């Protein structure tokens, strides 16, 4: 006898219609249908239980729609984001309650949920609500995770019709990047005897990643930041089964040509990747040996970028000041070692600046530091005034 399944929606096509309202293709130019999708999910919930992924998509999307500083206070916006994000994470992890007792981090890992989500959920629940910047980014990443792990699974029966997103141009940037990385990781498990074939695969992956970032509807630098996050979330750079003290040489050999090619195309990638590595390192818990081994892997990647000769010509793009600031604000065994590695690099930068500006004025360390700061500010639209008229406030100059 056939088993009957009761759903809150009329049929599968109705669910796919709501999916397209939550995740419209990039080519869609019509009105924003997300409020309508949230209302439909609210109605479905009145009819009975719905999958947590559907409810979480609606809650996170509704938090984004609530993000209006003219109508709502900043506090209420942060609270809405925090509540939606915490319910998303907690609801997912609570579905894995069977079997032996496991930590929330371990259950999240079983689901493929980033460990940073669990850490941020803990912060939002037990401490002050995170900043809007952090919450907005986490919400967007959560919606991308839900797309990859739930909404795309509705397509295999061939009922998706125009909803299918096989074309990279209509895929969210994070999804397209993950598909490329997952395909490469799957193929690389097979032993390749021909070095040329291996090099061709590495070059093809790097070029595909660069192309996706350039074609993204977001800025290229934002897409590069998304690529950095995807590399860590997919455990591409660190073997999830590594033990404390294991060598990372094989991993460096595998990924260096790819990451260096991407860096050569867009230097901002190395900046983003180093920031993501150190942020994940200081946020990661060290409750068990597995987590400590993962943190060690993050540190080893940073050490490799800082000290390896293969990265020497690209090291100028590392965010030295940011790495030092994070290490000093989060004292631990790993940040102390990393700070010691960064100090010589900082002196090397200052020495290089002094030698290159000997003919252009004073070469004191303060002058060099000011010059470096002014160059960074130029990237954000700031510049020095051509002339500066210094006088007390309220004093006018007669013509």
UniProtKB/TrEMBL annotation:
Molecular-function GO terms, alphabetical: endonuclease activity
Any one of the GO BP annotations: maturation of 5.8S rRNA
GO cellular component term, pick one: Las1 complex
Pfam families recorded: Las1
Protein name, UniProt field: Cell morphogenesis protein Las1
Organism of provenance: Penicillium diatomitis
PANTHER family, A to Z: RIBOSOMAL BIOGENESIS PROTEIN LAS1L
Top-level taxon in the UniProt lineage: Eukaryota
């Amino acid at each position: 006898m056939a088993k009957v399944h009761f759903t809150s929606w009329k049929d599968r096509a109705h669910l796919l219609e709501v999916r397209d309202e939550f995740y419209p293709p990039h080519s869609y130019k019509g009105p924003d249908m997300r409020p309508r999708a949230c209302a439909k999910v609210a109605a479905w919930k009145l009819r009975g239980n719905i999958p947590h992924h559907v409810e979480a998509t609606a809650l996170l999307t509704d938090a984004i729609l609530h993000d209006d500083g003219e109508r709502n206070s900043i506090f209420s916006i942060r609270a809405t984001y925090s509540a939606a994000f915490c319910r998303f994470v907690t609801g997912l992890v609570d579905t894995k309650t069977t079997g032996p007792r496991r930590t929330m981090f371990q259950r999240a890992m079983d689901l493929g949920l980033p460990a940073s989500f669990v850490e941020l959920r803990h912060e939002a629940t037990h401490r002050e609500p995170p900043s809007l910047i952090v919450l907005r980014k986490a919400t967007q990443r959560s919606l991308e995770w839900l797309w990859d792990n739930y909404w795309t699974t509705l397509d295999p029966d061939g009922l998706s019709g125009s909803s299918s997103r096989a074309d990279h141009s209509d895929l969210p940037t994070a999804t397209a990047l993950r598909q490329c990385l997952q395909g490469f990781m799957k193929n690389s498990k097979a032993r390749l005897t021909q070095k040329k074939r291996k090099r061709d695969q590495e070059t093809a992956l790097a070029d595909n990643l660069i192309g996706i970032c350039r074609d993204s509807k977001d800025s290229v630098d934002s897409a590069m930041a998304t690529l950095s996050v995807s590399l860590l979330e997919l455990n591409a750079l660190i073997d999830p089964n590594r033990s404390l003290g294991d060598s990372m040489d094989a991993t460096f050999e595998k990924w260096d040509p790819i990451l260096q090619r991407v860096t050569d195309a867009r230097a901002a990638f190395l900046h983003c990747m180093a920031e993501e590595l150190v942020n994940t390192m200081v946020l990661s818990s060290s409750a068990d040996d597995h987590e400590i081994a993962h943190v060690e892997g993050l540190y080893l990647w940073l050490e490799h970028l800082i000290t390896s000769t293969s990265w020497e010509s690209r090291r100028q793009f590392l965010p030295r000041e940011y790495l030092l600031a994070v290490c000093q604000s989060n004292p631990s065994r790993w940040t102390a070692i990393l700070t010691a590695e960064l100090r010589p690099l900082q002196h090397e930068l200052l020495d290089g600046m002094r030698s290159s500006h000997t003919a252009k004025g004073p070469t004191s360390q303060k002058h060099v530091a000011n010059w470096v700061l002014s160059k960074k500010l130029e990237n954000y639209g700031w510049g020095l005034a051509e002339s500066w008229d210094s006088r007390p406030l309220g004093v006018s100059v007669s013509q």
